[in-house]
Specification:
There is one protein chain. The protein has about 230 residues and is of the alpha/beta class. It has a 6-stranded mixed beta sheet with strand order 6-7-8-3-9-10, with helices on both faces. Strands 2-1-4-5 form a 4-stranded antiparallel beta sheet, covered by helices on one side. Strand 7, helix 6 and strand 8 form a beta-alpha-beta unit. Helix 4 packs across helix 5. The longest helix has 18 residues. The two termini are about 25 Å apart. The structure holds adenosine-5'-triphosphate.
């Protein structure tokens, strides 16, 4: 099969649960999802429906209790914790609601970090980071620290950082959730544009129907079960 015909993300029969004393609390129940390379998908669902858990499983942060997850040709079930970390560093970029920039590093240092962790030479990582900061409109702020920026600016830096190692998949967990409507719309447009330009698939958690409409496809979780479209 051609590589482009194979889904970038495939979840089959994924079940996940957390233990609460002796009780098992099911969070995801029989979830099947495929996402194509470059596809931009919004994930909607009420609080507690399992959205963040789903993102964490796809990122290999934790393994599912049952079911199979394959991302970028890597079967996550066969990987130990170290191998999952290496997988994540190569294939996945994360954008969080509260930016999660490293406060003691400059913007340039924040953005170059993922590439350096993957073994890139410092000069090359720096050049890519500078280009990315320019792309998100902050090319002249590289020596500033996160606390000197507005929330919208910090999220733009976080998008640059998420793209620095050229991941095949961007996972965004309520990326506009802590921003005002106008700033959120700008950040969303930048995120979509960045994903489109780089051919990066995007799976974005949101509570907002309006935000979800910007994606190519919307999937919905209800109590850990995927609703049929
Ligand atoms: N590490 C954990 N240990 C125990 N329970 C957990 C853990 N992580 C999540 N849960 C529970 O799993 C359920 C789903 O949580 P999750 O964060 O995936 O939902 P969500 O849809 O992302 O919610 P929100 O929109 O509020 O962020 C919740 O009931 C939550 O309390």
């Amino acid at each position: 099969m051609r590589e482009s015909a194979v889904p970038l993300v495939r979840l089959e029969g994924v079940y996940h649960a957390y233990r609460d004393g002796a009780r098992e609390h099911a969070v995801l129940r029989g979830v099947d999802i495929t996402i194509a390379r470059g596809e931009r998908v919004a994930l909607l669902g009420q609080s507690g429906s399992g959205k963040s858990t789903l993102l964490n499983l796809i990122a290999g942060i934790e393994p599912p209790v049952q079911g199979r997850i394959t991302v970028a040709g890597v079967d996550l079930n066969g990987l130990d914790e170290h191998a999952r970390t290496v997988f994540r560093r190569h294939h996945v970029g994360f954008v969080y609601q509260f930016f999660n920039l490293v406060p003691t590093l400059t913007l340039l240092e924040n953005v170059r970090l993922p590439r350096e962790l993957n073994g890139a030479r410092p000069a090359e990582a720096l050049r890519v980071a500078a280009d990315l900061l320019t792309r998100v409109g902050l090319g002249d702020r590289g020596d500033a620290y996160p606390e000197q920026l507005s929330g919208g600016e910090q999220q733009r830096v976080a998008i640059a950082r998420a793209l620095a190692h050229r991941p095949a998949l961007l996972l965004a967990d309520e990326p506009t959730g802590s921003l005002d409507t106008q700033t959120g719309a700008q950040v969303l447009a930048l995120l979509e544009e960045a994903a489109r330009t780089d051919g990066t698939a995007l799976l974005m958690v949101t509570h907002s129907e309006q935000v979800a409409q910007a994606a190519q496809r919307v999937i919905r979780l209800r109590d850990g079960v995927l609703e049929r479209a």
